[in-house]
Each structure stands twice: as C-alpha cells, then as structure tokens.
Amino acid sequence: DQQVKQNSPSLSVQEGRISILNCDYTNSMFDYFLWYKKYPAEGPTFLISISSIKDKNEDGRFTVFLNKSAKHLSLHIVPSQPGDSAVYFCAAPQSVQGAQKLVFGQGTRLTINP
Amino acid sequence: DAGVTQSPTHLIKTRGQQVTLRCSPISGHKSVSWYQQVLGQGPQFIFQYYEKEERGRGNFPDRFSARQFPNYSSELNVNALLLGDSALYLCASRATGTNEKLFFGSGTQLSVL
Fold it and tell me: Which domains does chain A have, with CATH numbers?
C-alpha cells in the first residue's frame, strides 16, 4: 500500500529551465510534507517542507505547491542547475504505534542537461 | 558540527550470516531511526529509538533488531541474512520537540551474496 507516490521515475530538464517534480498521496490524515534530495553515496538531505495550512512554500529557487483536494504536491526548481541533478523524494510524517516515521515516495531521478 | 555518522560504509556478507551496523546521531539528538532503501524505492521505516527505548517498528521480521546506547548511538542487527536484505541502510536522527525533519547519515550499503 503506497501512501505516497511519485509516478515519474526520471525527469530530464535543460539547464536554466524549470523542473517540476510531482507527488501524490492517498492518506488524508497527512498534514505535513517534506522533500529530500539524494546524491549518490550520500544520505537524503532535507530540501523544503510544507504544512497543510499553506498551499505554497518558497525557498530561493525551490517552491513546493500543495493541492489538498487533489492530494497532490509538486516541487518547482527555477532555474534548474547541473548541481540539482539528484534523486528527489517526497515524504510525509506518520505516527505509528508511538513512533514517528517518514513515509517516502519511490523517488524521481532528475537530470539537468547543460 | 558532525552530522549523522554510520559505519561501515560498505559490507559484503553471505546468506545466513549476521551483520551489525552502527550509527552516531547528531550531538544533542536523542531520537534515532533506521530505514532500508532498496534500489529504485524510497526509504522504508524499520525502527525508531528514543531515550534508549524502541518506540515503534515497521513491517520487518524479527531477524531485524536494534538498540540504543546511553550516548544515543545505535546499532542495527540483522540475523540469518537473505539475498533480499541487500540494500542501503540509513540511520537518521531528530532533535526533540522539533518538526518532523530527519537528518540522515550516508548509509551502509549491504550486499548479501
């Protein structure tokens, strides 16, 4: 049962253009979302988050949009740079049996072409 | 300040063997979680430990166990290794009272042959 889904395994974007990464969720109890970026041989690093009381959160070149009615969020990167090439994970916190865990999507591999 | 550190970085084992992975959280972080990431998938929750007690466990068999020490470092043990246990094992720590943001280590890549 995949509660967080990233349906695009990969995405290729020209340098300087906008990258849009999508994420869908099924659990309506989720009220906070995080995006992580992962380079090879490194652990995931936090990028940006959004609370369900907002529909947009911006941090420099990165903006996350949340559409609660559609249970959909997206990460926009403008302008895209070669260093943005990485795997991006969407995640939502969930409390289970007293534990706080993150439920991750499958990830999207973003490649920025010069 | 040092981030989350894990050792070893890579490990090769054969089926049936046992393995121990180690993790040191960020200084001051009392919560440590373990995740398994199989190639092509997102990280999957295995355990959370807080103040040396297990707070929850994911859908993993009893072959997986963990513990947390007084200095908040943690060990993950996997017994009777199977080929399917080959994965990247990630440790993450979180400060008490903060939001849900986790800080991850670089992981231990386990290969079971």
Answer: 4-109 (2.60.40.10)
